[in-house]
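User: Before I run my own analysis I want an independent prediction to cross-check against. Here's the chain; please return only the structure tokens and, at the end, one sentence I can use as a sanity check.
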Amino acid sequence: MNRSTAGTDAKRASARRGHFWIGLVVGAIVAAALLFSIYYVPRKGLSFGREPIAFTVVLDEANGLRAGSPVLVSGVEAGEVQAVEIREIPSRGWKVLAQVEVFDGQRFGPMLKTDSVYQVGKAGLLGESTVAIVPGGQGPAIAGQLVDGRPPTDFTRILDDLAVVSRRVADFMDGREPGDPNLRRSLIDLQATIRNIRDFSEKLPK
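Assistant: Structure tokens:
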């Protein structure tokens, strides 16, 4: 093999390597665009030509909310928390302010009012904190407003209340004439179930 042939082969090999790297870069860009369209766009609810709605939820405690926490409207993910800060509000003291953005203002704006329900909740297997909104109400439009948020439902307190009620009913049944024994048995089982649920709930992520 002469020098000219070797030089030609080297140029071809170099060209193939160049094409390989160009193809790799193009493929990476296409893959990134595909992942963006699959995951980011649906989560963000991006809709070109539609303005988002921004407002602030006022809370006594953050309850795990952070920048990036999802915002749900009737269970549909519609936005996210942009920032969480502590600020003093005149005549109300120090409060946690969660700045919220709902991405598709045209879709969700008409149903969100200042007297809709804004509550911190948990979602997903890991118990991610969310702002759960129940739309409705007759108040002003939500854009740019401060609205009062509700804390998460205290599941343990509910269980404690149920335990007290069932115990009182069981005590009441003890002082009566013998009746259906299945009722008292059911109440005892109810108390045991409540204890089991409480123990399980205490092990969940906070």
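Sanity check: Residues 1-44 form one domain.
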